[in-house]
Please model this.
Amino acid sequence: MSEFLTFPETQAELSVIRDGSPRTWSEIGRLLASVELHGLWRTNANSFTEWIRYFAQQFGKREGSYWRYLTAGRYYVELRKRLLNHDIQCPELQNLPDRISPENLELLAKLERVAPPDVIFGLAERVVAGVATRAELRDAWCVFRPVLAGRTARGHVEVPRYDPDNPMQRDSLLEAMVFRALAESAGRWLENNNCSIYHLFSDVELMKYKGSNKRYVLDALIITGSKVSGELVFHGIEVVGIISQQTQKKLHDFMQLCDFVWASVHEHLLEQTKPEIPNGVGILVANGPKIYIVRQAVKMDVQGCDLAKSLLIKMLK
Model:
């Protein structure tokens, strides 16, 4: 059975809507896709775009809203096929409840261009169940969007997507997956996770060390601690691929700036990179939304961070 209306059904639905019968966004999206499919816009417009504009004016709606309904509806039809193939049950387009918004589907479609399948199916299942929040999807998009290096669909003939043959995008995707796992774990991966403070920051520029002109930028910095004792612990995390001498030097430098330093590696590269990671640096592997310790980091004797920590504890309380 087709997800879209037949030619006679489309004509009938247009008449019903013009008579003032209310419709949900998904029903409107289905109708617009059917109008385009059967070319019904040709009766009173030179293009489908012109017809959408005329249709919006008839009902006092913004043209952009109708384009969103159409785009979200098309995407949901294809998404539903994939979800059903994975035994994830979801309603037909016209039966979508209001809690499944076109904005959430739009964000999910953006994420699908870059995030790995396990992330997408996890989020998609929450979206079609109506439990995923817009804030949750926006946060995920903020994490994965940098993989595309700022490229968006706007102005492009071909929508930009993740390219596994692009080494920069591969590294950036690994970094995004690690950051997401760290955020969702909320400190459960730590050996001592009885902390009342857990804050995660990305791309953190640390203070210059001993007057050096070199800038130190960590892929992630986690601050843990206790609001009662006022103690803070800095966990510096660097996402690494093949370990070069420059990477080893960078990890050694971080050991002078953080209480614990961790190297996060892809599980496929673990055996290759593990022997090259400096002693004292812990090793983390992200597996979907979870992160686990392969090697425990050694506590460093960091000097000169007491003032910064004392200021931070006041901010984080």
User: Anything to note?
Assistant: The longest strand covers residues 197-206. Residues 7-148 form one domain. Residues 150-157 have pLDDT under 50 and may be disordered.
